[in-house]
Amino acid sequence: MKETILETLKNLNFTEYEAKAYLTLLEESPLTGYAVAKNSGVPRSRIYEVLDSLAIRGDILVSPGNTPQYTPVPAKELIKNRRREAEENFELAEKSLAEFERSANDRENIWNIMGRNEILDKVKDCILSAKKRILLEVWTEEFEELEYELRQATKRGVNVIIIAYGEIASDFANVYLHYMGHEITEEYGGRWLVLSADDSEVVAGIVSLGKDSRAAWTRHVGLVMPITEVMIHDLYLMEIMEKHRELLEESFGENLINLRRKFSIHPDFKKHYVK
């Protein structure tokens, strides 16, 4: 009978010595540490380590004094506590595993978002969860609707960098005015928005079509990495244009128009497919 109970206690995360000490105290208590060792067979060199472990876990109680005495938590209370702890652990495991599974799916999937308001809501969510850096390509109209969330992000210590198409002024973000904002608006016939948060998630899409606006949100590294790098290269180019515009335009025309002619497949630069 006693051996069976010892095995049961081991299944409740008792070590062999802890189980023997607890059973001894159930049979007779209170006892000194010396008496527990003598009656349980736990070596005297280990008994106080074992009793301390049981006390910290709440399985026994200690009466302090010159010679501490020990008494067990009643068996019914012990089982009740173990059941509660097990249920809490199951609930935590269920929640954590579900979050992990959802996060794993997010890392592999690309989610479609329809509607300008819905796109901006998702962008705001990403801004609110960002911890280190936000890269944002945006027109004035959308910036005004995101300004509050962006300002709050900087207050949390997030570095906010904006590539602005149109006149955007900010006292909290690093703003780079795109040198061809007007021309690009004309070329594409609309406005887009691209957000990279912490180099780990991206929202990108057209936001000038009202309810027909469409964007994608993803954590897929195969898209997050190249989109983020394209934004960083835009920043490189704007820094270079700021310092060496005259030299570059001498080689490639005003606003690098010769490069645009070289790589555009539309003779009039009109990309109507976004409408």
Automatic annotation (TrEMBL):
Protein name: TrmB family transcriptional regulator
Gene3D superfamilies: Winged helix-like DNA-binding domain superfamily/Winged helix DNA-binding domain
InterPro entries (alphabetical): TrmB-like, Tscrpt_reg_TrmB_C, Tscrpt_reg_TrmB_N, WH-like_DNA-bd_sf, WH_DNA-bd_sf
Record SUPFAM superfamilies: Phospholipase D/nuclease, Winged helix' DNA-binding domain
Domain of life: Bacteria
Annotated Transcription regulator TrmB N-terminal domain residues: 9-75
Matching CDD domains: PLDc_like_TrmB_middle
